[in-house]
Design goal:
The complex is a heterodimer of chains A (270) and B (312).
Chain A lengths: L1 H11 L3 H31 L12 H9 L3 H21 L3 H7 L3 H37 L9 H27 L3 H30 L12 H10 L9 H25 L4
Helix pairs in contact in A: 1-6, 2-3, 2-4, 2-6, 3-7, 4-6, 4-7, 4-8, 6-7, 6-10, 7-8, 7-9, 7-10, 9-10
Chain B lengths: L14 E9 L4 E10 L4 E5 L6 H8 L7 E6 L10 H4 E4 L11 H12 L5 H8 L15 H13 L5 E5 L7 H16 L3 E6 L2 H7 L2 E6 L2 E7 H8 L4 E5 L3 H10 L3 E4 L5 E4 L3 H10 L6 E5 L3 H9 L7
Parallel strand pairs in B: 3-7, 3-8, 5-6, 6-7
Antiparallel strand pairs in B: 1-2, 1-4, 8-9, 10-12, 10-13, 11-12
Helix pairs in contact in B: 3-4, 4-5, 8-11
C-alpha cells in the first residue's frame, strides 16, 4: 500500500499527468462535438446517408457513442502514462533509488500496475462524468431523452472503464519490455494508431489469399482490434463476439504484467 | 538525528565482501574480491577508473547480481534487510531524481515507499542545508545541490551504514570541505562510512582505512598510515647543499640514488636522513636543508596499481 501511494505521488509531483489529462480533455471535446453532430444527423433521419445501421442507428446506440466520446485518444493517453511510470525510472535514473528503497522488485512492479489501474479509473471517471453531463443535456435538448436507463449505454460505459484500466496496465507492461522512453512511446503509438489499419489490411489480404472469411476473425489477436471488438459489442459476421476481445485484452495485460515482473527481477540496474 | 544521536538499529554495522565476482561477456569486472569495512571509521574505496568500484557497490546494494560470492551489510544480504533504508543509506549518481520534480517531493516519494513519516523529508533537507531550495525543481539544481539531495535521501532512514560512490565529483572546494566534515561527523557517531573515489588527495584527508582495488582485484586494505608505510620504507630524503657534486658522489658510494630537481634540491632514495647527514659531514658538505618527504597516498596508489590501471 505504501508503494502504491509512492507511485501515485510520483505521478502527482510531475507535469505528465495534467499534460496528458489536458490532451485527453481536448480530444474529448473534439470527439464530443463530432459525435453530437453525427447523432443529430443519424437520429434526424439521415442514418443511411451517414452510414449508420443496426444498433448504431438507434437512439441508445448514439447515446452510448456520445457518452464514451474521446475514448480513442483517451486510451492512448492512459497507455502513455503507464509507459512513463516505468520508463521515467530509467530515463531519470530513479530506478536506483526506487530499488534501493524496495529491493523486492516484484512489489514495485505490482504497485505500478495497481497505481496504473487506479489512474485509468480516474481518467475514465472524469471523462465519463463530463460526457454524461454534456451528453444528457445535448440528447434532451435534441429531443431524444438522456437514455441513462438503457443497457446499451450501461454496457458501453462499463467496457469503456475496462478499456481504460487495461490500456494503462498494458502501458506499464510495454515500459518494462522497452525501458528506452522514446522507443517505448513510439512503439506504443505506432501499435495503437497505425497498427489497426495495417492489421485489418493484412487480414483482408490473407483472407482473400486463403479464400476464407473465418480468418478475418483472428485480427482480434491485435490489442487495438480486440479493444474495438470489446467496446463495440455489436454482432458482426467478420468479427468475433465482444467477450473474445475482452479476454484477449485481459490476456495481454496479464502477460505484459508477468513478463514485466520477470524481466525487472533479473535486470542489472547500472 | 540532528543532535548527533541516533536510535540503534540491530546489526554490527559491518560490511563484508567475500569472494565477490562479476563476469560480463568479455570482462571480469570484479574478480574474487574480499574485504571488510568497520563501523566508526571512514573507509576509502580506491581504484583507477574502470577498476570495478561502482560494480562492487552495486552488487553490495542488490542492484547488480553477482556471478558468484557474497556481500553482506549487518550480516545480511541487502535484499534480505527488512527495512533497508533504516540500515543503509546510499548515494550513487548525482543525477538520480526526476528533472521536473522538486527536491522535497523527491524525498517525499521515498518516504512514502519506505513507510517513513513525511516530515522526515524536511528534516534531512535541513541537515544538508538544502531547505532554501526545497521547492525548486531538480533540473535547476547545481551539481553540489544534487549531491546534497542525494545525501539527504540517504539519511532519510537514519541508517547505521552509509555508502557513497564518488561523492566529491563535481563539487567546488567549499562543497568538498562540507562533505568531508559531514562524513567524518557521521563516522564519529559510530556509523560505517564507505566512500569510493579516485581523488587521492581528498581521500588522504578523509579516510581512516582504505581498500585499494585494480582490475577488479584487491590490491591492499588497512588503515591509511599502515598502507602508506608498508609501501615506502623510509621515504625519500630532500637535501640542499652548495657542495652538491661532492655530496652526490659520496651518497652514490653509499648505494643511494640521487636525482637533482630544478630548484637545486637533491632527492635521495635508498638511504635514510641520518645516513645522508653523516655522509655530508664526512664529505665536508655544508647542509642548508635536510628532511624526509612524507609519502602521499597518490604515490603509494600509483606504485600499487602500476600497470593494472587503464582500459581493459
Amino acid at each position: 500500500m505504501n508503494l502504491v501511494r509512492s507511485e501515485l505521488l510520483k505521478i502527482r509531483t510531475t507535469n505528465a499527468w495534467w499534460l496528458l489529462g489536458l490532451g485527453a480533455f481536448l480530444s474529448l471535446v473534439l470527439a464530443f462535438a463530432f459525435n453530437a453532430f453525427y447523432a443529430h444527423q443519424v437520429l434526424g433521419g439521415n442514418a443511411e446517408e451517414f452510414g449508420a445501421s443496426g444498433e448504431a442507428a438507434t437512439v441508445a446506440g448514439q447515446a452510448a457513442n456520445i457518452y464514451t466520446s474521446g475514448q480513442f485518444l483517451g486510451l492512448l493517453f492512459v497507455m502513455l502514462i503507464g509507459i512513463l511510470m516505468v520508463t521515467n525510472e530509467f530515463f531519470h535514473q530513479t530506478a536506483t533509488t526506487t530499488f534501493l528503497t524496495t529491493p523486492r522488485r516484484t512489489s514495485v512492479i505490482v504497485a505500478k500496475l495497481i497505481a496504473a489501474s487506479l489512474l485509468g479509473f480516474a481518467f475514465w471517471l472524469v471523462t465519463t462524468l463530463i460526457n454524461l453531463a454534456a451528453g444528457a443535456i445535448f440528447l434532451t435538448v435534441d429531443g431524444h431523452g438522456a437514455q441513462l436507463g438503457e443497457w446499451t449505454v450501461h454496457r458501453a460505459l462499463l467496457f469503456n472503464l475496462l478499456a481504460y484500466a487495461i490500456w494503462t496496465i498494458l502501458g506499464v507492461g510495454i515500459g518494462t519490455l522497452i525501458p528506452n522512453q522514446l522507443g517505448a512511446v513510439i512503439t506504443a503509438a505506432v501499435l495503437y494508431l497505425v497498427g489497426t489499419q495495417v492489421v485489418q489490411l493484412l487480414f483482408l489480404a490473407l483472407s482473400a489469399w486463403l479464400d476464407s472469411q473465418a480468418i478475418l476473425k483472428w485480427q482480434v489477436v491485435w490489442p487495438a482490434v480486440a479493444s474495438l471488438v470489446m467496446i463495440s459489442g455489436e454482432k458482426s459476421d467478420i468479427l468475433p463476439a465482444w467477450w473474445v476481445g475482452a479476454l484477449v485484452l485481459i490476456g495481454y495485460a496479464l502477460a505484459s504484467g508477468v513478463v514485466g515482473v520477470l524481466i525487472t527481477r533479473r535486470r542489472d540496474i547500472a | 538525528m540532528s543532535d548527533g544521536q541516533r536510535s540503534p538499529t540491530p546489526g554490527d554495522g559491518q560490511i563484508v565482501v567475500s569472494g565477490l565476482t562479476k563476469q560480463y561477456k568479455n570482462l571480469r569486472a570484479v574478480d574474487d574480491l574480499s574485504f571488510a569495512v568497520r563501523p566508526g571509521r571512514v573507509t576509502g574505496f580506491l581504484g583507477p577508473n574502470g577498476a570495478g568500484k561502482t560494480t562492487t557497490l552495486r552488487m553490495l546494494l542488490n542492484l547488480v547480481t553477482p556471478t558468484s560470492g557474497s556481500a553482506t551489510i549487518d550480516g545480511r544480504r541487502y535484499a534480505d534487510l527488512t527495512d533497508p533504508l533504516r540500515h543503509v543509506g546510499a548515494v550513487l549518481e548525482a543525477s538520480s531524481a526526476h528533472k521536473g520534480r522538486t527536491g522535497i517531493n523527491h524525498l517525499r516519494v521515498i518516504c512514502a515507499a519506505a513507510g517513513l513519516p513525511r516530515g522526515r523529508a524536511d528534516e534531512v533537507l535541513e541537515l544538508v542545508g538544502l531547505t532554501p531550495a526545497a521547492k525548486r525543481k531538480f533540473k535547476g539544481y547545481s551539481l553540489g545541490m544534487k549531491q546534497r539531495l542525494g545525501i539527504a535521501a540517504a539519511m532519510l532512514g537514519d541508517p547505521r551504514v552509509l555508502i557513497l560512490d564518488e561523492p566529491a565529483n563535481g563539487l567546488d572546494p567549499e562543497g568538498i570541505r562540507w562533505m568531508r566534515g559531514f562524513l567524518k561527523g557521521l563516522a564519529a557517531q559510530g556509523r560505517t562510512v564507505l566512500v569510493s573515489s579516485h581523488l587521492l588527495s581528498e581521500m588522504q584527508l578523509l579516510a581512516d582505512d582504505v581498500v585499494i582495488i585494480a582490475a577488479g582485484k584487491l590490491v591492499r586494505q588497512g588503515p591509511v598510515e599502515q598502507v602508506m608505510s608498508s609501501m615506502t620504507a623510509g621515504g625519500r630524503v630532500r637535501v640542499r647543499t652548495p657542495q652538491a657534486d661532492e655530496l652526490v658522489a659520496a651518497l652514490r658510494e653509499q648505494g643511494a640514488t640521487v636525482t637533482p630537481d630544478e630548484h637545486g634540491v637533491l632527492l635521495v632514495d635508498g638511504v635514510d636522513a641520518p645516513t645522508v647527514g653523516r655522509t655530508a659531514l664526512a664529505a665536508k658538505a655544508e647542509l642548508h636543508e635536510l628532511g624526509t618527504e612524507r609519502p602521499d597516498l597518490e604515490r603509494v596508489f600509483l606504485e600499487l596499481t602500476a600497470g593494472k590501471a587503464g582500459i581493459r
